[in-house]
Amino acid sequence: MALQQAQMLLSMNSLEAVNAGVQQNNTESFAVALCHLAELHAEQGCFAAASEVLKHLKERFPPNSQHAQLWMLCDQKIQFDRAMNDGKYHLADSLVTGITALNSIEGVYRKAVVLQAQNQMSEAHKLLQKLLVHCQKLKNTEMVISVLLSVAELYWRSSSPTIALPMLLQALALSKEYRLQYLASETVLNLAFAQLILGIPEQALSLLHMAIEPILADGAILDKGRAMFLVAKCQVASAASYDQPKKAEALEAAIENLNEAKNYFAKVDCKERIRDVVYFQARLYHTLGKTQERNRCAMLFRQLHQELPSHGVPLINHL
Amino acid sequence: MLRFPTCFPSFRVVGEKQLPQEIIFLVWSPKRDLIALANTAGEVLLHRLASFHRVWSFPPNENTGKEVTCLAWRPDGKLLAFALADTKKIVLCDVEKPESLHSFSVEAPVSCMHWMEVTVESSVLTSFYNAEDESNLLLPKLPTLPKNYSNTSKIFSEENSDEIIKLLGDVRLNILVLGGSSGFIELYAYGMFKIARVTGIAGTCLALCLSSDLKSLSVVTEVSTNGASEVSYFQLETNLLYSFLPEVTRMARKFTHISALLQYINLSLTCMCEAWEEILMQMDSRLTKFVQEKNTTTSVQDEFMHLLLWGKASAELQTLLMNQLTVKGLKKLGQSIESSYSSIQKLVISHLQSGSESLLYHLSELKGMASWKQKYEPLGLDAAGIEEAITAVGSFILKANELLQVIDSSMKNFKAFFRWLYVAMLRMTEDHVLPELNKKDITFVAEFLTEHFNEAPDLYNRKGKYFNVERVGQYLKDEDDDLVSPPNTEGNQWYDFLQNSSHLKESPLLFPYYPRKSLHFVKRRMENIIDQCLQKPADVIGKSMNQAICIPLYRDTRSEDSTRRLFKFPFLWNNKTSNLHYLLFTILEDSLYKMCILRRHTDISQSVSNGLIAIKFGSFTYATTEKVRRSIYSCLDAQFYDDETVTVVLKDTVGREGRDRLLVQLPLSLVYNSEDSAEYQFTGTYSTRLDEQCSAIPTRTMHFEKHWRLLESMKAQYVAGNGFRKVSCVLSSNLRHVRVFEMDIDDEWELDESSDEEEEASNKPVKIKEEVLSESEAENQQAGAAALAPEIVIKVEKLDPELDS
Predict the structure, then answer these.
(1) Rounded to 5 degrees, what angle do the CA atoms B400, B401, B402 make?
(2) Residue A251's pLDDT is what?
């Protein structure tokens, strides 16, 4: 939907320009629409197209002109996300300063995300709490929900998923109230994960039915991968109670979903997550007794592991 | 007059009517005391039980069609579907009003229909139901279409646009199964969207039944070979539907939304085309004529420019303006242009845009579903195809937006141009002159003239005119041609950028833009693509339905015209609680029709005892005389009344005219009596025709002491029963005489003196305790008597001396 609006705006601007003056196109709306387009492309893994749009913006709106801030922020955000995907936290950390200069709330949030990724839980928690209060005062609902989700993640990473639940429910209530469909699905995804940790994977699976379609429909590639990964985890967890033939079937289905998740992650080169997926697949193949496939996955894991040594976060505690 | 209370006056007559037209189909509403009839005149009638009073009639018309072949109720009784043979259409009609809510075309004339509802429950389903549609939260309500355009489809005419939801009814899946000639079988979810097309069944469908657990589909077909037709029974496996029920439900609902929205967009576009009037072409045609007639060398553009700059027009132009166009005409033209443009503009903004945005929303939801490969790929949902469809909708939105801008600029241009022309013409007539135009206006008009008043000889060859001043109409023409004057995208920075880019150009996220095509063209393209990706699941699901069982039934040599045959056997019924398919049919034996009941489990892998049994009607006990009516009976029609009972119309072969037809309620509990069921086993084989192995079919002889009634002075032939409201309707063989019965009056001690005027009290067959039984039949009869308790002995005031035959 966003895509459609942006393109409509762009073509609208253009036709007006034919009739009226020439300089019409250097408006803020044009810049916003293009930035938006760049972000959407980056989300879907079309980085070349995104950078092309940004390059065009750079030419059209030189760095010291009025609307230059728009694309600068957009550019840095995209870079930040890519760095995070790649596991280059130090690089992401260095980008935070730039983002903070342009948009302080966004900057603080990203700082917390980096801290969290670097396993500096208490610092991240402090920062997020402050940000939460600030955003609630400003009524920046979207940010409030994102912060709540991050806080919840902190809780289960420190192995206390029960405390995370009220946070998630609050986030869900907010996103439903403000009709933020995508954030709502994101929250449901987190809720399902919490349920998985709490040991009720069947519940989690049926909850996922609600969330997965919007995510697969309009979500960022990374989110799609995460959703499929979670589905696979839930399938494996609920298969534990099945009898043998049914269990094998469920595991096969999980492997298929993992493949799909892997494809998604590959599109945004999120090596860390690919590593996790491959590890998981190797384990499943092992259970099914498929040695050849298992060895293939294991080798892939080994390669990735050497490239990106794991930081000791257990696989299960990571959505 | 107060009569004694009579027990079991079996089946009280509650209505009787002679109808002006022959009835070719009748079916009771599953929930209410309404009966729908179709007659030879092509009318669909709805009658109420009470005195068979007519509720409404749906007259035949050109649009829908004139040849109704069959009817089916939606299981909730709120919608009635009927099939038309001449237009090959299916019409859905509201029970409240005789108007078409929705209609669609099918490939072949439909000969039978069955509308079923899914009864399966599961936790996954419930969560699917709960996840149902946030769309009404997120999307704006679609504005209603103008009244006069909504004749064709009433979905959008009501005040609230939730009409689609209403039409969909309950979230629970219901499926309309259609069968026609040459193996045509299609399944429509919610009676609206095709979810399966079955292939591989030969012959014309006579009856269809999809089991409510969705495990199998029963079909009876007829293949005619030299004069006689061979009737066979098929059971098709529908495991895909069964195992993917939640997904099918969700997909079907989405599909229904999408097809309804496509229809909405189509109607909006029709409205727009109608708002555009031919009068708007006047300008172009006048100017063209002017070019043809004038003998000067100067171009039209120059002539007008001349007028603009020096205020003087050449003689020819002056004649054109003053004599042909005239001041009055100019005013009128200006007004009609403005009014029609603004109404088109309104339609684009409010209807077309919101409609296409909803379409985009639903399609992207569908994309989300399709990307969940594990769930939806087996159903044939294809993510790539849907993505293409989304892009096509995007292009359509862009095109609509372009039209909007064209209208906008045209309105501005025309206003300025006409104002100037008006002033110029006033000056020519030397009327009082309005204030001069300022310089800016003059530049504007000059620009307009240069842009729009160019003579285009190549255009003349194509369209027969030199000018294309009016630029809105070209978007609304349903032609494959390119636009006559496409919008100018030069100097448009976004398109320039896009053209020069290397990666962005190939981005799958961008909607292609067809600068040279009309709105209609883009719409048609979009429709085709969407249709394609919605078609695919129907093929995939249809292919998955394998023919599991084929039983040749009998050879039918009766030569009847096709319309009458619709009532005939065989009759299919699905018992929802015990998951059985029942088939009622008759076999001709010694010039008598013997009724047979075939039953099969809906799950193909399971078998059922007493799969085939024939029924012989032995004796009917008369209450009055303590005598038994013994005769030989031929079965004329039979139908399931409810899960336990079959309603049968019998013909007494020796009874005299007018007293030879009987209406009987046959309880299945007696047929499938568990005590001696082992004795009634079919010893033949299902692979050869059943009427060739009559002797192998076990026959159960039934005796009745109650639950039957003589049908006086009526050549009854057909029956339609309704176990929910406990009524039956009997139709005579001339298809015009109907009589309605209340079937279940066991507990009713009627002290009513007025209700039975039409019938003579004397004719009432009343039950007594049976005593006259031949030895051989005693055993059976005891079983029957036990089931039909309580037994009450009644004295009857008057006897009918003629009852015995």
Answers:
(1) 90
(2) 92
Give pLDDT, residue B769: 36
First to last CA, chain B: 31
Model confidence pLDDT, tens digit, residues B354-383: 888 888 888 988 998 898 888 888 888 888
pLDDT of residue A111: 94
Name the E strands within A84-171.
none
- Lowest mean pLDDT: which of B148-162, B188-202, B280-294? B148-162
Contacts with B369 from chain A: Cβ below 8 Å: 213, 216-217
Is residue B771 packed enough to be buried (19+ CB in 10 Å), middle (13-18) or exposed (0-12)? exposed
Taking only the tens place, the pLDDT of each residue in B77-136 is 888 888 888 888 888 888 888 877 778 888 888 888 899 888 777 666 666 666 556 666
Q: How far is CA B101 from CA B54, B66, B94, B164, B195, in A?
A: 21, 17, 7, 10, 20
Asked if the C-beta of B440 comes within 8 angstroms of chain A's C-beta atoms, the answer is: no
Tell me if A4 and B394 make a contact (CB, 8 A cut-off): yes
More confident residue, B604 or A251: A251
Cα–Cα distance between B540 and B196 in angstroms, integer?
7
What is d(CA B596, CA B143) in angstroms, rounded to the nearest whole number?
55
Assign B101 to helix, strand or coil: strand
Neighbours of B53 (CB within 10 A): 10
Give the closest residue to B740 by CA, choosing from B725, B726, B753, B727: B727
CB contact under 8 Å between B127 and A210, yes or no, is yes
Q: Which residue of B has its CA nearest to A212?
A: B368
Task: Measure Cα distances from B419 to A298, B127, B317, B423 in Å.
Answer: 80, 64, 17, 6
> Could you tell me which of B598, B601, B568 has the C-alpha nearest to residue B582?
B598
Closest CA to B241 of B542, B550, B604: B542
Minimal Cα–Cα distance from B175 to chain A, Å?
A: 24
Helix (H, G, I), strand (E, B) or coil at A93: helix
Average pLDDT, chain A: 86
Across the interface, of B131, B137, B369, the residue whose CB is closest to A179 is: B137
Distances (CA, A) of B134 to A100, A180, A187, B335, B352: 36, 11, 16, 44, 21
pLDDT for the residue numbered B792: 37
**Residue B551 vs residue B454, higher pLDDT:** B551
Give the pairing type, strands B612-622 and B699-704. Answer: parallel
Instruction: Please name the helix (run of DSSP H) or strand (run of DSSP E) that holds residue B166, with its range, or none.
Output: helix B163-168
What does the pLDDT read at residue A137?
92
Q: What letter does residue B372 receive in the DSSP assignment?
A: -
Give the other-Cβ count within 10 Å of B403's Cβ: 23
Indicate yes or no: CB of A213 within 8 angstroms of CB of B369: yes
Q: In sequence order, which ranges of B550-690 are alpha helices (DSSP H)?
A: 562-565, 668-671
Residues paired with B204 in a beta bridge: B222
d(CA B391, CA B498): 17
Q: What are phi and psi of B503, to 5 degrees?
A: -90, -40
- Which of A273-282, B59-68, B94-103, B116-125 has the least mean pLDDT? B116-125
* Entry pTM: 0.82
Q: How many CB atoms lie under 10 A from the CB of residue A159?
A: 10
Residue of B nearest to A208 (CA): B127
Of A13, A17, A52, the CB nearest to B501: A52
By percentage, how much of chain B surpasses pLDDT 70?
A: 78
Mean pLDDT of A84-96: 88
For residue B629, what are the β-bridge partners?
A: B620
Task: Using the predicted structure, report yes or no on whether residue B141 has a pLDDT greater than 50.
Answer: yes
Compute CA B326 distance to the chain's CA centroid, rounded to the nearest angstrom: 53
Question: How far apart, in whole angstroms, are the C-alpha atoms of residue A92 and residue A84?
Answer: 6
Note the maximum CA span of chain A: 73
